[in-house]
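Per reviewer request, we include the raw input and output of the structure prediction for the construct analysed in the revised manuscript.
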Amino acid sequence: MSKETPCVAVCMIDPKTRLCFGCGRTLPEIACWHAMESTERLAVMALLRARMAAAGLAPIAGSSKRA
């Protein structure tokens, strides 16, 4: 996987928050990820930890922040 992806290969969307349990991205973000510019991807990645915490979702054990 690219260094510019938060994907941890746990691709399940939480029906309540509509965030991926593994990375915290939304379906639209996941769908257009490869079309995004590097700066856009890095900007989204910078928000994911706080986004998941605000939604009450714990990061997947063993996942690491990639940048």
